[in-house]
């Protein structure tokens, strides 16, 4: 093996609830328009035939409790609170009835979004990368092992900004539930331990500004927090 011209990147590692071990993050998949009410507030409709996806780089992971600068290049940074699935077992072309066997655990996530850049990309029928895949855009709580909490099907999901509730729903409102997402995604990728799936956000997304404190929760899964700092 040749020597490296600079040090290899350190992998992103998320904490695990009740453990000193960490969860190395491999890839981050995100499901779009997976709550009907959110799709409507975005002026669209949910894709009921099959989920669709976009990606975030694992380097953009941010642990819950962090303070991050207001994202560059945007004037309309939005919060999106989500249930996150952590894959723990390799799988390809997984049957829906077997899908949950591939789940290591669950977490709370914030899919931070540069909404103005995303909307501009939509208008030009371009990819969403600038609006979705940017530094500090994938916030994650400690992962709760499924062996401890089970597999949540109906659980309240909420996000508050400066103490005021902005998003409040239930994960049972997802158009495509967790098992269906895993089964579908695995038709196109060999899912691997370390993969994360952000499963979509309910209605109530909105803009944040420097100084805002975000606090979210999913019943039985955990809590998440983020502070928005000044722009760099």
Automatic annotation (TrEMBL):
InterPro entries: Fumarylacetoacetase-like_C, Fumarylacetoacetase_C_sf. It comes from Ideonella dechloratans. One of its GO terms (molecular function) is acetylpyruvate hydrolase activity. SUPFAM superfamilies: FAH (SSF56529). Residues 28-227 form the Fumarylacetoacetase-like C-terminal domain. This is Fumarylacetoacetate hydrolase family protein. Keywords: Hydrolase, Metal-binding. It holds the Pfam family FAA_hydrolase. The lineage of its organism: Bacteria, Pseudomonadati, Pseudomonadota, Betaproteobacteria, Burkholderiales. It comes from the Bacteria.
């Amino acid at each position: 093996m040749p020597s490296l011209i600079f040090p290899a990147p350190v992998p992103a590692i998320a904490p695990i609830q009740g453990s000193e071990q960490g969860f190395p993050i491999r890839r981050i998949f995100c499901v779009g328009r997976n709550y009907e009410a959110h799709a409507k507030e975005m002026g669209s409709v949910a894709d009921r035939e099959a989920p669709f996806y976009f990606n975030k780089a694992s380097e953009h992971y941010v642990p819950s409790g962090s303070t991050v600068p207001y994202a560059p290049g945007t004037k309309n940074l939005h919060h999106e609170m989500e249930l996150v699935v952590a894959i723990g077992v390799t799988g390809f072309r997984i049957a829906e009835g077997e899908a949950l066997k591939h789940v290591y655990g669950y977490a709370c996530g914030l899919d931070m979004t540069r909404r103005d850049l995303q909307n501009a990309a939509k208008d030009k029928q371009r990819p969403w990368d600038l609006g979705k895949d940017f530094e500090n855009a994938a916030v994650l709580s400690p992962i709760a092992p499924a062996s401890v909490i089970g597999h949540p099907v109906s659980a309240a999901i909420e996000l508050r900004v400066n103490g005021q509730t902005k998003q409040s729903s239930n994960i049972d409102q997802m158009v495509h539930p967790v098992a269906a997402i895993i089964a579908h995604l695995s038709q196109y990728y060999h899912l691997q331990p370390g993969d994360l799936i952000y499963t979509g956000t309910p209605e109530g997304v909105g803009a944040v500004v420097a100084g805002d404190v975000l606090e979210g929760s999913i019943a039985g899964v955990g809590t998440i927090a983020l502070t928005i700092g000044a722009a760099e």
